[in-house]
Specification:
transmembrane helix; 18 helices; Maestro_heat-like_prot; transmembrane; mainly alpha
Length: 387
Amino acid sequence: MGRDQSDDLVDFSIELLQTQTVALSACTTLVSIEPRLPMETRNRVMKATLGFFALPTEPSNIVESLITNLIILLGAILLTSGEDGRSRAEQLLHILRQLDPYVSASAEHQRRRGCVAVHEVLVKFRNLCSGGFGASGSYPTLSLKHIDQGGPRGSSSLPSAFVLPNRDSLSLGERIMAYLPRCADTDDEVRKVAIQIIALFFNISLSLPKQKTSANDIDLESSYGALSSLEDIVSIIRRVSGCISLPFIKSSPEQMLKSIFLFPLKASVDQIEVFHRVVSSVCILLSKDELVVLLHSCTLAACDKVKQSADGSIQAIIVFIIRRGKDLREADVLRTTQSLLSSAIALTDKHSRQEVLNAVSIIIFLCLSFSILIFISRIIPTSSYYL
């Protein structure tokens, strides 16, 4: 019997996908061997292959194999990015920013792939920072607390500032704002991976040297406590098959703050409680400068393609402003207000727009409160002179 033309097209598509899978494996080999390809060439290879993240889910076995090979390629590009911490951090950020369109895509399978890729690349970077790589290029699976306990360093004869990047080079404020909406995603797997990404970022950052100007800005005791809370969440979401999905529209900033302090973290938790815990930890872990950058880059998060993620991001921004508003300077307040107003203009959902405007009103109220306190603090010493 003759074959249907559609069957021929399906066979061709499968054969093409299989060829592309092999080609990605070959690219990984090409990137990994000596002499190393120039950075420009490696970035061209990455740019030419990232589009595979947009492939449909079927045929699942072949597509999944292709995506796995693509993620391995991204890891190889990172591993060959240079010998010093700064160049590695720059390459990491370049890869992560290239993945942003997939992390925030409207299609669930693209968000899932993007988040998994980010997580795997971050694991590679963490192992680079801890010196944990084998002779064959394989990487051991380390616990999130491994770096804090002190791991082996392959280049112990070199100064840590040369081997390791500094914390500022990770652009934590920008990166956390990129992944925070995914912690409120409608897809369970996306939420789980996103929380692990945020925990990894802060785990890495606390192991890195800090610039002198920002060293005193971070309370290490509070930071390690918040990181421990994040790691507890990661442990729980790995055990629990799924979280109860509840709409974030029902959770006000006041309820979020109350939840953070009053509800103990149980073995079985709902989605809102997990998100509140993540927001609370992030609020403590960010330095002042990182918080400012996060708030300045809130427009995309507040306008996320997934409404639940957008609503969760807006609630998180309000909590950050309420709890850390005193850390904002006048210029920071103006830029944050501008970012929020840009979000309000771009949003089409009436409720989301109102929540953004609520955040703006909170900023204005806090500014007025601080101004009054400063005015009173200046007046009281003067008044006491006449008493």
